[in-house]
Amino acid sequence: QEGGAQTAGSPTSAAAEPPAGGGTFAVITHAASGDAFWDVVKNGAEAAGKQYGVTVSYQGDGDPARQSQLIDQAVSQKVDGIVVSMANPDALKESVGKAVAAKIPVITINSGGDKSKEFGAITHVGQSEDVAGRGAGEQLKAAGVKKLLCVIHEAGNVGLDQRCNGATEGLGGTVERLQVEGTNLADATSKITARLQSDTSLDGVLALNPAVAIAARDAIADSGSKAKLGTFDLSGDVVTAIKDGEILFAVDQQQYLQGWLPITFLTLYAKNLNTVGGGLPVNTGPGFVTKDNAEQVAKLAESGTR
Amino acid sequence: MTATGGAPARGEAGFAVPLLETRECGKTFGGVIALREVSMQVRAGEVTCVLGDNGAGKSTLIKILSGVHPPDSGVYLVDGAPAAFTSPRDALDRGIATVYQDLAMIPLMSVWRNFFLGSEPSLGWGPLRRFDVARAKRTVRQELRSMGIDIRDVDQPVGTLSGGERQSVAIARAVHFGARVLILDEPTSALGVKQAGVVLRYIAQARDRGLGVVFITHNPHHAYPIGDRFLLLNRGASMGEYGKADITRQELTSLMAGGAELEQLAHELSRDEPPGGPKEIR
Amino acid sequence: MTATGGAPARGEAGFAVPLLETRECGKTFGGVIALREVSMQVRAGEVTCVLGDNGAGKSTLIKILSGVHPPDSGVYLVDGAPAAFTSPRDALDRGIATVYQDLAMIPLMSVWRNFFLGSEPSLGWGPLRRFDVARAKRTVRQELRSMGIDIRDVDQPVGTLSGGERQSVAIARAVHFGARVLILDEPTSALGVKQAGVVLRYIAQARDRGLGVVFITHNPHHAYPIGDRFLLLNRGASMGEYGKADITRQELTSLMAGGAELEQLAHELSRDEPPGGPKEIR
Amino acid sequence: MTVADERLAGTGLARRLLIRPELGAVVGAIAVFAFFAGQSETFRSIEGVANWLDPASTLGIMAVAIALLMIGGEFDLSAGVLTGSTGLIMVILSTRYGLSVWTAMLVALVVALLVGFLNGLIVVRTKLPSFIVTLGTFLMLQGINLGVTKALTGTVQVSGLRRAEGYDQARALLAGTFSLGGTDFRVAILWWLGVTALATWVLMRTRPGNWIFAVGGDERAARAVGVPADRTKIALFMTTAVAAWLVGSILALRFTSVQANAGLGQEFVYIIAAVIGGCLLTGGYGSAVGASIGALIFGMADKGIVFLGWDADWFKFFLGAMLLLATLANRLVRRYAEEVRH
Amino acid sequence: MTVADERLAGTGLARRLLIRPELGAVVGAIAVFAFFAGQSETFRSIEGVANWLDPASTLGIMAVAIALLMIGGEFDLSAGVLTGSTGLIMVILSTRYGLSVWTAMLVALVVALLVGFLNGLIVVRTKLPSFIVTLGTFLMLQGINLGVTKALTGTVQVSGLRRAEGYDQARALLAGTFSLGGTDFRVAILWWLGVTALATWVLMRTRPGNWIFAVGGDERAARAVGVPADRTKIALFMTTAVAAWLVGSILALRFTSVQANAGLGQEFVYIIAAVIGGCLLTGGYGSAVGASIGALIFGMADKGIVFLGWDADWFKFFLGAMLLLATLANRLVRRYAEEVRH
Ligand SMILES: Nc1ncnc2c1ncn2[C@@H]1O[C@H](COP(=O)(O)OP(=O)(O)OP(=O)(O)O)[C@@H](O)[C@H]1O
Ligand SMILES: Nc1ncnc2c1ncn2[C@@H]1O[C@H](COP(=O)(O)OP(=O)(O)OP(=O)(O)O)[C@@H](O)[C@H]1O
Ligand SMILES: [Mg+2]
Ligand SMILES: [Mg+2]
Predict the structure, then answer these.
(1) For residue D314, what is the nearest residue in chain E, using CA coordinates?
(2) Where do transmembrane segments lie in this chain (chains D, E) (predicted)?
(3) Residue E44 located in a structural domain
């Protein structure tokens, strides 16, 4: 848990020469750095790198074209392994193929599990956003929610769209979407308030990141709505709000594992040619943080490992 | 000294249709009435001088003639037919070339690009048609030299020229492209005596080639010898159009200067001068 | 007709330290040598005229005097001590006010804002110090009226004024703020005869109040009666500085005009005139 | 010559109003309001108004500052991210280093002033376009926000301001609410009005205001008459930074937590609001009130679509159409105004 | 008077080179290259070069078009999103409606031309600033991209172009590779060079090129001498749209799938590249080659930081610092050039 904080503590540590016997692994995701969810993945990967004495470089970009360029770069740098999240598998096919052709082991994480094997990755870690979204939908359904507002804080982001789609499946009821600016919380609050004010039949809100969750909490209070609130991912404030009963649950995909495990697997593969689970996907979640277990994870969320 | 109305001042071009004619043209900008009911004619082979104080509406009249502004009221005839110019391009296409007082040049562009702007010489055909740069530069250099302006470098941006140099380029351009009518708004104001002389000679040449010339100046010494008709504007309104025969140099000068007041002034100024020199302040 | 060097032309201000003095000042822009080794003096109570063809470097010299450009070579002395102006503000603070030929006004700003730009009258103290708008507008209206310019509306943006109106505002401003030295770069070129007369009268008044005036013009009829010394520039170099006593009106005119050539020109132009009027083309 | 001029048409109050640069924006705002109020009851209810005034207020504060800067002929792309930086500084200092909220705010202010000063200094010294310089600052601040936050806290967001000393007073002052007709309005709305009034006064009635118009209209000419152009520009950049600090503090105090990417992308919205409000991108023309109304139009359109419950997928489409129509209404009115003036 | 002028100093080849607007950008590019090449072997290896030329090529194509538009005094904020729109149209038409890739590309081209034409038409007719007009188009296209894609496919991305008719030829032409020294380079690089050369020729050697400089430098003066300003501007907007179509097609063919938010945010990067390359934001000055080199600088800095393996959290910081330093180097060189000229 401490590991994540420490690794991140020295900005250029990832670029340092690998200790003897180590390799260099590139983690390339479909989210720009600074995203709360993916930051935990990064922490996990870097902590694992530190643990095994290997160099981990993390890069991410939401634009599939740029993500594929990052893979190309990693290939020309002749890294010893690539970890890639495939939100848009089609777009990455060529670049991943290039890596595989260059005999660089590839592990896919998070999304794109169904294409993982086809593209020649050695395994897949974590399940897609749909699954997590479905879990959230089911939880809300259990809480009696009939009409849900799914708050998308980045228009056109595939992962967020998949979460909402999953929630629609899980809930079985009506799911409406709302677009807000994730970087402007005042705007998010007032848009959620506006939606709740103008449609009082909304009885549930699903936020897709912790900051928006806090905005949604305020909005529910401002509008005097009785809507139940669920969210993805954790922050100190979210945990407090869960404890206070303002937020019902937070979906916890345990994405730390989506960073940690691939590095572990790649290290083992490099040393020992191990492939975990014979190439079958390894699931990391979803878990749920509710009032019951909020206390325990509170500290962990603060330090960026949950 | 009587207003001639439509009667031509000079014989040979006399009864032909005027090249340009405005009838009771007016122009308003927001709350400002810049021009009201001004009628004038421009005839081939004649120089029409427009005279008037600052802000009298001379430039506004010019801009109507050259298609920059449409008149708000009245009619504007070209070759006797109503003209509906929507842009200066239309006027240029009818052979009307203008030197504007305030819309001169594009400062960031080089002298030769400015000179040919809008009427670039071409080379080649179809998609390969291109700006004949070599010819453009050569022509500009020649035209300027023949005006007695020696620009060191036609690649220099116009913004770095001196005030008079810039003015000279604009005049050279208008003379070069003026096919039937040449309109000059205070072309000589920024020029040295020598250069002004050259410009006056150009005007005379254009007139002799049969062009209609409209010439604005504040200098009666420039206006009188070359003008054939004189349109007087005052505070936006026309004070009448005079043929050269109807007005003497003295009348013109005092009309432009506001009369006797000036003699008094010259007196005040020239403290070292014998009091004989007052009339020189014009 | 001899160059006077440093000798003063007029008695009373004669042996005092000149207000402004340049010694062998030069200025280069990129590849262009605009001014080389020009020496001149500006004395209190005297009008120094700078004469020369277009592009001779007059405006460049003016800009050195008023702090827009530092000279590239030579020294520039104010009150006998080397001045290192880094901006026109410094010059203004030493009482040197200038009307520039090309850096006149901010077109989008109203007349009254332009007039007081950089020297706004204030009202109130401390953080409540504010622009005294009422006084500013009143002053502008008065100043312009006393120049014979009647601007309808001092709230009008300067960009919508006529060329001469704009020039008048700039002159009125310089006269209003000129404490010790008044520098005017072709102030009368865009003005009507009447307005030009008013400006000359202003110059005379300023001179009589003991200001040093630098005056640039292409019109010998404006320059001679009011000038006390004449600095002649040609292609960036000084052709000498003359006191009024050292030069006659005829010499000055022909120096400015490039000599006999003009008589010939006047001949060509005035086809309707008796050949007696050639000297008028100046 | 001294009597009423025959060349001037009616100069009554109506005309005076019609030529103000804000006029078009006001009409645009009324049109947008009428459109949404006509269709959504909640939009025109007092709670609705309180709701859409809330984001308009923080946007408005920034838009006014950006408008001053734009009138002065410069851009600031770093202002949005700077709101995040100041918030981060405040929260990190008071939660991790135990400073009181007030001290933390002061430190954040100093940092903001420094950033503004550096922006200005680089612009006036190097004469590089401010677009490029502040783009550099924008990117660098973005990196610093993320890098420092991660280095100090291990996560990409910091929270817990509520427990800091002085939080309650600071919140009441900057992020609290006041009641009007039984509905709670955000205090930020008052700050917005105050900032707009102050900026208008500076612009219209002080010497620096005159200089701002001048450096934006024609910097060389302004320098030639002795306007301290460099100082004016640096001061404008610092003003923008102060506004960013104010907005950053308001948001941090309100949400008690700040994300490392807070404010990102907003720099654009500020410019949009200023331009809708009539500022010229090329400088030298505009008004603070106009920028405020631009912020209002943007805020109303942005929220109004949500009130109407239109499909979220098409949100941006409606927003774009709305802004275009509002500015068109704006432009038509101004044209009409110029015509009836004579 | 006709002999060599004594008021002119040396006019040799050196001076001719030094006064080109691209000079500074070239020096900036060399500095950035030297910096990264000195530290990363991969960066200077031929594979590395192929790597960073790849993003520079698509960026460069757009930057050149945007540079022309900026020289003509206008902005286009919708260009980035339009690359996404054309890609979406292409993929949707050929995967959902069975059109061949070529027909789909043709339809996309027509749509792009229409968007460009409308942008231009609105700008010249309403005289609204193009910043606002294309901002409207930007938002509306964004909404359409998302709304239509969701409506037709139920997700925010479409894929499967690989199976469409004519894919292989189209890909070879636009998104294929060519081999040089044993390394594969993207064909887009050739397109980029071609576009740059064509734009340079138009700008420097044709009548429309002269008009572009003129309408950007002073539109009123240009109109006064008869330049068809409206036509020139509309043509510029349409040129930008064609470039967006080209880039959109290249990317769609290469990745065979397009996301509904593709191209978003890139509009900004195009402007940055053009400005780094020496274009004035106020119009009337700049060069196509400069914009290309600006794109190269941006591409090198963007990828170079990744090659050095610096922490991704600080990526933006380094990028900002790099851009600022490159433009500063650029400016210093230009100043020096102006000094040695005499
Ligand atoms: N675009 C405009 N908007 C408002 N007022 C204008 C505009 N153009 C000109 N005017 C006004 O119309 C009047 C006539 O201007 P014009 O430029 O025609 O005068 P002019 O006779 O050319 O004067 P000058 O000899 O000084 O050049 C002026 O008072 C000017 O203020
Ligand atoms: N910023 C500049 N860059 C390059 N060349 C310049 C610059 N300013 C002036 N020059 C050149 O220097 C020479 C002198 O210009 P200046 O403006 O001093 O002439 P002037 O005597 O005022 O002429 P005029 O009577 O026409 O106003 C001109 O040839 C001009 O082209
Ligand atoms: Mg005029
Ligand atoms: Mg001059």
Answers:
(1) E143
(2) 17-37, 49-71, 77-94, 101-122, 187-204, 234-256, 268-294, 314-333
(3) no
- With a cut of 80, say whether residue C252 has pLDDT above it: no
- The tens digit of pLDDT for each residue in B24-48 reads 999 988 777 889 889 998 998 899 9
pTM of the model: 0.86
Give the ligand whose atoms come closest to the C-alpha of residue B58.
1
Q: Which CATH homologous superfamily contains domain C13-105+179-267?
A: P-loop containing nucleotide triphosphate hydrolases (3.40.50.300)
pLDDT tens, residue by residue, C98-137: 888 776 688 888 889 999 988 888 888 877 888 888 888 8
Q: Which of A120, A137, A287, A288 is nearest to A204 (CA)?
A: A137
- Residue D7: which of C107, C118, C152 has the nearest Cβ? C152
Q: Give the domain range for residue D167.
A: 55-336
3-state helix, strand and coil shares in percent for chain D, rounded to the nearest 5: 75, 5, 20
Q: How does residue C276 score in pLDDT terms, banded at 50, 70 and 90?
A: very low
Tell me the C-alpha distance between E159 and E337, whole Å.
Answer: 51
From E95, E92, E93, E111, select the one nearest E103 (Cα to Cα): E93
Helix (H) or strand (E) holding C100: none
Any chains having at least 3 CB pairs less than 8 A from chain B are C, D, E
Q: Among A91, A98, A61, A97, which Cα is nearest to E255's?
A: A91
Q: Which residues surround ligand 4, an ion (CB under 5 A)?
A: B 162-163; C 59, 101
Is residue E40 in some structural domain?
Answer: no
Name the strand (E) or helix (H) holding C184: strand C181-185
CA distance D320 to chain A (A): 14
> Which atom of ligand 2 is nearest the CA belonging to C53?
25
Is D69 a domain residue?
yes
Identify whether D124 is part of a domain.
yes
| Under 8 Å between Cβ of C9 and C57 | no
Number of domains in chain D: 1
E8 Cα to chain C: minimum distance (Å): 5
Task: Give A181's contacts in chain D (Cβ within 8 Å).
Answer: 265-266
Contact between B154 and B125 (Cβ < 8 Å): no
Tell me which residue in D126, D128, D136 faces E320 most closely, judged by beta carbons: D136
- Distance, CA of D240 to CA of D82 (rounded, Å): 10
Alpha-carbon distance of D96 to D158, in angstroms, equals 9
Question: Residue C123 forms beta bridges with which residues?
Answer: C130
- 8-state DSSP, B26: E
Eight-state DSSP code of residue B279: G
Segments in chain E below pLDDT 50: 1-4, 9-10, 341-342
* CB proximity list for E245: less than 8 A, separation 6 or greater: E82, E83, E86, E105, E108, E109, E112, E113
Q: Which chain D residues are Cβ-neighbours of E150 within 8 angstroms?
A: 313
**In contact, D261 and D138? CB cutoff 8 Å:** no
